[in-house]
């Protein structure tokens, strides 16, 4: 049996050697358990982040300040032995501050590319909506094509590459609305919300005398995550499941000013594949699609033209209305 922790598990064609479904499930759940050593009371949200990571997607975490959005991303990165960079989005941030810039070296008399923070396995975009649209758009190519182009030269980003962006929901007069082209590139949009009394008490108990994030160690590595992603991509999605996902997206297009894009339908099935693996299956069932639909589809919908409200009610009606055949 191939060692699941090898980082060089590739075949002669350079393809990644997938983990078994059981190995991939153990890896994913080990990361979830590890993150829960830091993040209290948000098992479902942590699981959503993991399914997005395993499905080669990105996550937008929207909420009020101070509920653990940034800490969630840090805990995930510490649980995986991978490169991690944080970008603090501010109104004066430039696109080159994210992607990198060519700098002239006077000794060699040549331009050298100084990589920006986007060159990492996991990139935290903190308060992404504080930067103007031009700077936000610097992530479009990176999120969709896993590459950046600077001065006409294209450079590949690390594999895996995942963006976890946080969005401030208060101080609307000091933030910028994310362009729909960027919103659509996030596989999922989640919210953490306030903890209940018991959860907050447990959280306070953990942080007295020091924060648990400082003692958190990795439980897996980049090579294993890459192989787990290969496992996810091999999960069977039969035609009735594909048709069901298409009907859900079609419902949103017929019942909203802006419905789910084909990219959104693809993201829904990929997320469902990842959820199947976490549950120890190599095939997708309707329950996987239904579990992923609210976080994958809602932020892609505009119920009325010109509005910024998401489409949670539309997705809920779609799940209640569209039959599983």
What features would you describe in this structure?
The protein has 325 residues and is of the alpha/beta class. It has two domains: 16-196 and 221-232, Rossmann fold, CATH 3.40.50; 235-325, Helicase, Ruva Protein, domain 3 (Orthogonal Bundle), CATH 1.10.8.80. It is built from 13 helices and eleven strands. It has helices at 21-35, 43-54, 69-79, 96-99, 133-136, 140-145, 180-183, 197-207, 222-233, 239-254, 262-278, 286-297, 312-321, and strands spanning 59-63, 80-81, 84-88, 100-105, 110-115, 122-126, 147-150, 153-156, 162-168, 188-190, 220-221. A five-stranded parallel beta sheet has the order 3-6-9-1-10. The protein has a two-stranded parallel sheet with strand order 2-11. Helix 1 packs across helix 3, helix 2 packs across helix 11 (262-278) and helix 10 crosses helix 13. The two termini are 39 Å apart.
Keywords:
325 residues, alpha/beta, disordered N terminus, five-stranded parallel beta sheet, 13 helices, Helicase, Ruva Protein, domain 3, Rossmann fold
Task: Give a quick rundown of the structure.
The protein has 325 residues and is of the alpha/beta class. The chain contains 13 helices and eleven strands.
């Amino acid at each position: 049996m191939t060692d699941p922790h090898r980082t060089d598990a590739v075949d002669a064609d350079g393809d990644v050697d997938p983990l078994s479904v059981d190995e991939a499930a153990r890896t994913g759940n080990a990361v979830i358990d590890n993150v829960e050593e830091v993040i209290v009371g948000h098992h479902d949200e942590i699981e959503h982040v993991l399914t997005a990571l395993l499905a080669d997607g990105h996550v937008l975490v929207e909420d009020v300040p101070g509920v653990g959005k940034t800490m969630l991303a840090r805990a995930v990165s510490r649980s995986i032995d991978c490169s991690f960079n944080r970008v603090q989005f501010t109104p004066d941030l430039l696109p080159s501050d994210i992607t990198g810039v060519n700098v002239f070296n006077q000794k060699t008399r040549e331009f050298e590319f100084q990589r920006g923070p986007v060159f990492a396995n996991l990139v935290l975009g903190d308060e992404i909506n504080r930067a103007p649209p031009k700077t936000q758009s610097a992530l479009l190519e990176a999120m969709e094509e896993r590459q950046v182009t600077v001065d006409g030269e294209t450079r590949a980003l690390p594999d895996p590459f995942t963006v976890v962006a946080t969005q401030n929901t208060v101080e609307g007069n000091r933030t910028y609305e994310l362009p729909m082209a960027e919103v659509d590139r996030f596989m999922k949009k989640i919210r953490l919300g306030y903890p209940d009394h018991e959860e907050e008490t447990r959280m306070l108990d953990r942080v007295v005398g020091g924060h648990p994030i400082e003692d958190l160690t990795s439980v897996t590595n980049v090579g294993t995550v890459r192989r787990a992603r290969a496992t996810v991509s091999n999960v069977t999605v039969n035609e009735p499941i594909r048709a069901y996902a298409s009907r859900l997206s079609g419902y949103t297009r017929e019942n909203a000013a802006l419905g789910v894009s084909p990219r959104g339908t693809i993201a829904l099935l990929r997320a469902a594949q990842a959820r199947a693996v976490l549950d120890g299956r190599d095939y997708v069932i309707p329950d996987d699609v239904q579990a992923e639909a609210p976080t994958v589809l809602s932020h892609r919908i505009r119920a009325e033209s010109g509005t910024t409200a998401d489409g949670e009610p539309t997705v809920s009606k779609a799940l209640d209305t569209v039959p599983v055949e």
